[in-house]
Design goal:
The protein has one domain. The longest helix has 20 residues, at 2-21. It is built from 1 helix and 9 strands; from the N terminus they run αβββββββββ. A 5-stranded antiparallel sheet has the order 1-4-5-8-9, with no helix packed on it. Strands 2-3 form a two-stranded antiparallel ribbon. The protein has 169 residues and is mostly beta strands.
């Protein structure tokens, strides 16, 4: 009986290579290797330019004492519209889904406009004389530039980030 088991095992072992040779052959080429898409990260340095236009209205009250209301105008009004342009740069660090960063920018503003207003003193006003007098005042209202330095903390969802920022201006 042991002889029959050994003889059966020998035949089975001899038949296995023959079965392996009869496997079907491949008729198409294997698919080319495509490396996995890299995971998006917010980590790194960035620099950029910005441009735009600003609108502004400035009201300057020269004198608001009701005793002299008839002698002074209500104020000088000026529109400070103009082009803006600047540069910003920063760095972000991403740790899992959380992002922290720092950013600075400088922006030139073409919003400073020169305006003038005239104050009329009628005759009878103290020091105005018999014919009255007037004084014209000229001034610049607006800003020439602004700069900021701020920190950022956020939560990244692939190429989207929800964040809060705060700092100095």
């Amino acid at each position: 009986m042991l002889k029959n088991i050994l003889l059966s095992t020998a035949f089975a072992a001899a038949a296995l290579p023959a079965l392996a040779a009869d496997l079907p052959s491949r008729t198409t080429a294997p698919a080319p290797y495509v490396p996995p898409v890299p995971i998006f990260t917010w980590t790194g340095f960035y620099i950029g330019l910005n441009a735009g236009y600003n609108w502004g209205n400035n009201d300057l009250t020269l004198y608001s004492n009701p005793i002299y209301a008839g002698y002074f105008p209500s104020g000088i009004k000026s529109d400070s519209d103009g082009f803006t342009g600047g540069i910003q740069a920063g760095y972000n660090w991403q740790m899992n889904q959380f992002v922290v960063g720092v950013e600075a920018d400088w922006v030139w503003l073409d919003s400073g406009k020169t305006s003038s207003g005239t104050i009329a003193y009628p005759s009878g006003y103290p020091g105005a004389g018999v014919g009255g007098a007037s004084v014209t005042s000229t001034g610049k209202i607006g800003s020439d530039w602004l700069a900021t330095l701020r920190g950022r903390i956020g939560y990244a969802i692939d190429r989207w980030m929800i964040y809060g920022t705060g700092g100095l201006a």
